[in-house]
Amino acid sequence: MRRWKYLQALSANEHKSLERFKADLAVFQRKKEKLIAMLNKYKEQEKKVQKAELSLEREMKRKELLLASVRKEKSTYQRLLRELRKASARMQKIIRQSEQRRASQYAGSDFRRFKGKLPWPVQGTVAIPYGSHKDPRFNTPVFRNGIYVTTGEEAIAAAVHSGKVVFADWFEGYGQLVIVNHGKGYHSLYGNLGEIFLRTGDIISSEEAVGKVGSSGVTEEPSLYFEIRYKGKPLNPSQWLGRQ
Question: Is domain 106-239 in CATH 3.40.50.300, yes or no?
Fold first, then answer.
């Protein structure tokens, strides 16, 4: 009898131990599943972090390359501005010489009377105006002696007034360039031409074809660079041209 009670007690104790083990096993299983879920979540987050780091690294490299490119462009741009200022000084010298040489002098009609009435050298839109302004890309102060007029492909530039051609050739900073002497100190300049139709010494009439407009890279579209000068000093062309 005692042995039977002992076996019953032992069996009950083992049953309780088994139940506790099952309970502990269930808790362990839940913790294991929770840990696996946390591990999977961690791996996903790790992948996202690695992806973000890679994206950030690529973006930093892209910005470094962009910054280097902008610095190079700005340096090139500033060099071009210096060259343009030097070219402008040489331009004034050419104009002064044309005034001094009898062969280059032109006694035409009074150019001043046509202020605000001159025909446009080419039909288009003023993309870059005359005067002082800041370059939108580099925030650099710039003074333009003339205007850039964007126009269509194969556009033909025409003289704004009768005169004598005193220069018709390539000129550093202006590309293919034509300078027309209108008499009494007035000159008009037609730069960035793809092709020149005239020669130095030609006498031309108002609205006669000067050349074909080219592409400069300064504007995205084909454009004519146009100036008006009086005794070498640049004037605002927009004040001299009539309505289109």
Answer: no
